[in-house]
Amino acid sequence: MKFAATDAPRTPILDIDGKHYTTDDWTNVPSSILSYIPRKLQLQPSHPVSITRQVIESNFPPPKYTHYNDLHPIVSVAENFDSLGFPKDHPGRSRTDTYYINKDTVLRTHTSAHEAEIFRNNRSEGYTISADVYRRDAIDRSHYPIFHQMEGARMWDRRKVPGGDIAKAVWTDLERLPRHGLSIEDPNPTTHAERNPLQAEHHSPEEVEAIAAHLKRSLEGIVVELFSRAQRAAVNARQVDANALQPLKVRWIEAYFPFTSPSWELEVLWQGDWLELLGCGITKQDVLINAGVPDQIGWAFGVGLERVAMLLFSIPDIRLFWSRDARFLNQFSSKENINTFVPFSKYPECYKDVSFWLRSSSSSAGGAIRANAQDFHENDVMEIVRDVGSDLVEDVRLVDDFVHPVSGRKSLCYRINYRSLERTLRNEEVNQLHESVRKQLVEKLGVELR
User: Fold this and answer.
1) Core-most of 78, 365, 386, 444, by most CB within 10 Å?
2) What pTM was estimated for this model as a whole?
3) 449: enclosing H helix or E strand
4) Rounded CA gap, 400 and 387, in Å?
């Protein structure tokens, strides 16, 4: 297989949270990423990520639901991929996308890495998981290598419901859920043979109709909890006139997700635009069978907490969530209140370009053994810039891409925007950072600078 070019400095043993992990040729997680593990933003009471989590959780009360908020982020490859049926050649398994501790161990890329264990433990009929997840990704104001997901599920057991009648049991439970006054668009049938198929070998149409109705009512309740608070915050911030507020509107869109079928996205009309809020569906029965609970059937959903918090609190840059600046943190309350973020300053941008040739298959420029045009991956560039500049980099964009007509070599130019959220950067500081990026590109990717 092809290895990612941005290998982390190799030490035989990694000590993470008091546990020891042996490294190998798969290890690619830098110490800068590991330093985020203790932060646990989802558990900091007055943090926007935590407030968003708490509001969503309030819609899924115990004892019917168990909330898991402190599961360790280091999981096995089997938990993160195999238990969920990821094909062996799935791109998510690549070292260009995932942080590997070693060939058998990763930083979880999604909260679903814990699904099978929770299904097996079977502590309650439903659950939520809120956790930090890790993915090598682009650098811009809406992407970060560490972010927070929340997922939830509700199950019914064929052996435990009266008479084994799943549909009747689900409709009975649905009647106990709170009603709401949302305006709802849901024009499509619950299942469609091509677009949104029924798992006919496992589920009856009547069961899926009932479970889908329960799912949608439950998740519409999240919209009411979140966006009614956000409306009040907008009124308090004088962004909108209370008399001009419109009833909340949502719509259900057919979707595809690998672990549910049928599946949907829930969108909410917010400040004039339709915004995707979450994805959900009827849990794939293979996931439950592999977890050892073949008699269970139910629904699941997943949502990105930063994405929702950026909408609710009007936070413009995902880097702010990791700020320790009191001017940011002190704006938020621990009482599940949503208020509009007030920017404390906007510091100047500083753009720097870096251009380089990738090696052709016969070239030895840079002396590396990787990073020719065939195995180059943009995430390798992002990882180098992030490791050098950390949160002093706002975004990185490809601005030029061409192939030399004679040599056939490929040239790329990336524009890096250096800008701190908390202070003005000095020219000398930015120049030093940028020179370090250039050197790392040569050393780790084997490129030839232009």
Assistant:
1) 386
2) 0.88
3) strand 448-449
4) 23
CB 351 within 8 A of CB 343: no
The 10s digit of each residue's pLDDT in 155-203 is: 999 999 999 999 999 999 999 999 998 999 999 999 999 999 999 999 9
- β 100-102/105-107 pair status: antiparallel
**Measured CA angle at 298 (ends 294, 300), to 5 deg:** 120
| 132-141 pLDDT tens trace | 999 999 999 9
DSSP secondary structure letter of residue 248: P
Please give the average per-residue pLDDT across 345-357, as a whole number. Answer: 93
DSSP string spanning 347-414?
Answer: PPPEEEEEEEEPBPTT--GGG-SS-BTTT--HHHHHHHHHHHHGGGEEEEEEEEEEE-TTT--EEEEE
- Residue 238's alpha-carbon distances to 231, 312, 418, in angstroms, are 11, 15, 33
**Which residue pairs, CB below 8 angstroms and at least 24 apart, start in 260-268?**
260/284, 260/299, 260/300, 261/196, 261/197, 261/198, 261/199, 262/190, 262/191, 262/192, 262/196, 262/197, 262/198, 262/208, 262/212, 263/196, 264/196, 264/216, 266/219, 266/220, 266/223, 268/223, 268/227
Could you give the C-alpha distances from 447 to 296, 363, 381, 382, 413, in angstroms and in order?
Answer: 53, 10, 11, 15, 12
CA–CA distance, 137 with 78 (Å, rounded to integer): 22
- Tell how strand 105-107 and strand 126-134 pair up: unpaired
422 with 414: CB under 8 angstroms? no
The DSSP output letter for 93 is G
Contacts of 163 (CB under 8 A, 6+ apart): none
DSSP state at residue 89: T
End-to-end CA distance of the chain: 29
Structure tokens, 280: 């959900």
As a whole number of angstroms, the distance between CA 406 and CA 327 comes to 55
Positive or negative: CA dihedral 258, 264, 265, 266: negative
Structure tokens at 299: 């629904």
| Residue 271 CB neighbours (<10 A) | 11
Q: How far is CA 394 from CA 145, 204, 412, in A?
A: 13, 50, 20
Separation CA 34–CA 14 (nearest Å): 10
